[in-house]
Amino acid sequence: MPEWYMQILKMTNNSWLLFLAPAVVFYVLRKDRPAFLFALITATFFVFGAVLHDSIKEFDRGIYVYRYLFWAAMDIGWMGTIAYLALKDKVYMWQSIIGQLVVVVAPVLQLFRLLDRHLWDLHFSNYLYTTLLPLVNVATLVVCYLPILFLFKRSKTTAPVVRV
Fold this sequence. Notes:
mainly alpha; about 0% strand
């Protein structure tokens, strides 16, 4: 296999982009710009995180400070970007609010993990960290797919009106 193909495969395996791609394509085909932009911004942050993951871990080897600050900043950056776009009516406001409520757990968890590693030495924080962060990513993907779910629900509930 070519090296570039292996890099792309590694990047999609390390990120949630593979699971997000169908939503992006669906929104392009439906011409749902707000949902497309929300999913595209989320995919961009996922790709950015996947590309920088190894570099951040290498830079922070033995220190274990900068990685948590970086990931917390990435989550806050995503939240800020989505909030700004919602205020400018570029993404759905309801989707922005739900997404931020889901993702707000991630920077808190990152900073909790940082404090735990350097100050508290709690034994259960590793379990919280390794369990909750993937759940936050899955919940973020679900938020990206919510416009599709609402579309299907709306098409089921809108039956033709029969006049007598």
